[in-house]
Amino acid sequence: MQAPSTLPLTAIQAALFAAGQWAVEMARKPFEVEEKGPEDFVTAIDRTLDQRLAAQFQQWFPADGIITEENTASIPLMEQNFSRLWLIDPLDGTEDFINGRPNYAIMAGLLVEGQAIAGWVLRPESGQLFYGGEGLGLWTAQGLEFPSLLVPVVTPPPTLTYCPILLGARDQKRYGPALQEMIPEAQFYTLGSFGLKVLEVILGRAGLYLYLNQRVKLWDTVGPIALAHQAGLVCCDLNGQTLQFSPDALDLSTLAHHQPIVVGWPHYIEALLPRLRQAIANAAA
Question: What is the CATH number of the domain that holds 243?
Answer without folding.
Answer: 3.40.190.80
